Amino acid sequence: MTARKTKILLDGGDADETQRIKKLIGSLDGQTTNPSLIAKNPELKKLVTSEHGLSVREQMAEYRKIVEAISPLVGDGGVSIEVFADESTTAEEMLEQAREMFRWISNAFIKYPCTREGLRAAEQSVGSNIRVNMTLCFSQAQAAAVYAATKSTKVPVYVSPFVGRLDDIGENGVDLVANIKRMYAAGDGHVAVLAASIRNLEQLLYCFWLETDLVTVPAKVLDDWARHGFPMPDGNFKYTVTGKPILYQELVLDQPWQSFDIQHELTRKGIEKFVADYRATLSQTS
Ligand code: E4P
Fold this sequence. Notes:
Layout: E1 7-11, H1 15-25, E2 30-32, H2 35-39, H3 42-51, H4 56-70, E3 78-82, H5 91-102, E4 108-113, H6 116-127, E5 132-137, H7 140-149, E6 157-161, H8 163-168, H9 174-184, E7 191-195, H10 201-210, E8 214-217, H11 219-227, H12 265-279
Parallel strand pairs: 1-2, 1-8, 2-3, 3-4, 4-5, 5-6, 6-7, 7-8
Bound molecules: erythose-4-phosphate.
């Protein structure tokens, strides 16, 4: 059995859950949140039901309360906070939110989508020492663009390839994580790979086996890991391929980020879903 090199983050939006999982597995390196997870927070849900929806400011204040409660419970993997971004949100609008959110807690990472505007915001953020987590990553080209856009950084940068959502469309999602790791091996190491959208124990074990820098995991998968006695993959570990292989692409990292083809249908759909879940917490008049 090998020692674990991958940091574990909890994928969730409720400090009580963070507390419970921390106790269960001993420690947590960090946490990722997103608009869908925040919309499921029990306290926020109660407020939405009793007040028929929140104003934009109230929603922000609730999001802040949630991450403030989570922040001291986790380690240096930090707490990822996601900006509101729909298809027309500009980099400047994302940055304005980011500047505010980054001040909420001392270990914040700001999540931007892997879109043109998200990358523009990331490029400017790292210039102002704002740590970023580039989310909704579904292609190696998007990860290459993240690398190139944040090249000058002195602060940590994460890229989050979404495994489970690629599986959902019949692709072998973990291949993307392996491909990004391989591509980054030729780089300077300034972007850490944070495997996301983990749906089962086997995907978690694969991330440990691959030694991704970080993995973000929902509570139910960590419960399962605990139930099985915290197994770690050994040299004989074999992953059951779930779909069409995602082939490795030879991409040169050292070029302007704008030169990469960053379009991906799942990024667009992911944004749509986050926007819908966020809007569902707002009052009709906001
Ligand atoms: C990552 O930061 C996301 O919050 C998360 O992993 C999404 O997972 P899902 O595809 O199960 O919604």
